[in-house]
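General statements about sequence and structure are easier to judge against a single worked case. In the encoding step, the backbone of a single protein was reduced to a row of integers, each denoting a local shape. The record that follows shows the chain in one-letter code together with its fold in token form.
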Amino acid sequence: MAQDPELACGKQLLDVAEQIYRTFTDHPYNTDLSHDVTHVLSQTIDDTALYSEQLTQFTERFRERLERTYAEYGPTSTLFLVHGRYLLASQPESLIVFERLSHVRSRFGLHIVWGHSELPDSMLTDMAQIWGIAL
């Protein structure tokens, strides 16, 4: 039985994101949410195999900023633990969201695809706020 290509793409994206995310934290995350979000994110990426290298390069370029971001908003932050805000910043796919938000063209595509999904708009707007951009 063949696997759905979108599901396979989402799984591959999550595998890459999780591997990189683990360099920032080993905190557990919500795998069901990860699958839902990577399904949406996969619709914004043309070539998953090439994207792995793109995400790695993005992480290397913005490592210090990402470290600060995860410290302030991530899974061990007061904003997350006490206030329950910024849920997506405690997920490995947050790396993909930040990368997509960093480029005008992919940001526009992400905003459109996200708007057609069942994911709350507040998740994406919170991530945009963290990354310092407007949608």
